């Protein structure tokens, strides 16, 4: 019979402790050594008690342990060292049972790893289950607390009250499970408050929500949750009475305002009784076996304030490959994965492109607002310009565009405040400004057609009726959509999961019918008018040049090519022709059309300012009269478009 010298290399024992036994037990440390009927020794390890990464040394012969290098055995499963007559076998308990399988173990009720030595080779088998049995099971009536779809209670307050009740019942126990009908919860206190470890949890239909004890088996579960050591340390630093973490799985959770589809119809809540945020080592929740063909999973969180969730991506990053997705969140709250429908194969824009487009749009909108405001300032300084019907119609378009640019620049800020009512109002107002802009594009084209047909003041109160047509119908449409709950917070997806939120229409069918459909009609009319007007300008230019050549006896031109280009570009932006690039935002042309649309419309305010300046009577009348000796009648018309003849 062999005599073993066994030393456990852990921080809890002195460095030179040596215990000599023929059969020895260290149950308080999580292992014991027994002799079987074949004179072989079996090492039993209890996973619940053994320290992680503990190493066990079996010593035979005459050994001076002060000369043994215990820093070895870091990566190998088992190693043998010889020091003269001293034979030391080192066993890495963490790796010894990595690939072991679970077996039926009669009369064993604990979760143990059994290691049998055959020569120098350890053979490991597992008993019990990979999950830890809790010390206390608490069952509450289903009516105690409501998380369901019809609940109008504040969910953050619900969690606070529930946590207080469970901690009071736990007393000195370190683990507990809670059930409220379909709602399941797990409470864990670190064994060592001064040196907490990462808490890991799993969920499956077989085990429900449980503490994972055998972490080598984590990948076999469909849902994994880990709360890092850093979170426990932050909770401790806030001087709370009890350091703990509580994880809840809540099925059939209350729907949000947009009736979003939640993965597996389940929401997870993590609470530690303290405000935990800005974690470097994030809280990770992994979901597996996700069908991504028809929808894209995105991680969202909610503070719990209010009766209905207001999901946001702030503080949560979405990663994952294949059929899995991992939510990496830097704070505590309610968590869920929302399935965002894929409209096409290119529904997700890259974060780099989104950043570029946002940068271009912000600068472009800022410049447009500046030039449009300058044009408005000029208009209200000129008495003669205010009398022109065409100028006043143009000014209404400028006002609509200024409002649209301003709402667009402030939209994301309102969306990130989390105020649902404010976001709905912002979405409705921006939509109203957009529809008004489309309408004034059409009214500009209509007025131009009437001027080309030499119809002056065709109806009484012409300008008043035009203004009513430009501002009233969009208000009716927006009011109807607002009461139909079509406005809310919308998320723009990126490939990295760091999405951008805005307040807008949440029903894509409404967007296509009301916005795309309406603009299609406007575009058909304005583009036709633009082509006719362009041809008219070219012909008139030739005629005017011929008259002036005959009158002056020379071929000297009175205009420049640059002036013509500016006039045409101004007319193009006035009729909203550049917005037509939105029709190409599909398939392979989707991203290029975004850039072209964004860049062109960033210059809209500038060209409208130039167009207004060149077509208004702010330009000296003496200059006009000096150049129009043979075209007096044409240039004295009130319509500013007729002044194209002068360019």
TrEMBL record:
It is found in: Membrane. Signal peptide: none annotated. The chain crosses the membrane at residues 357-381, 393-409, 429-450, 462-484, 516-538, 565-588, 594-613. Coiled coil: none annotated. Its main location: membrane. Residues 357-616 form the G-protein coupled receptors family 2 profile domain. One of its GO terms (molecular function) is G protein-coupled receptor activity. It comes from the Eukaryota. The keyword Lipid biosynthesis does not apply. The keyword Disulfide bond applies. One of its GO terms (biological process) is adenylate cyclase-activating G protein-coupled receptor signaling pathway. Residues 200-345 form the GAIN-B domain. This is Adhesion G-protein coupled receptor G2-like. The gene is ADGRG2.
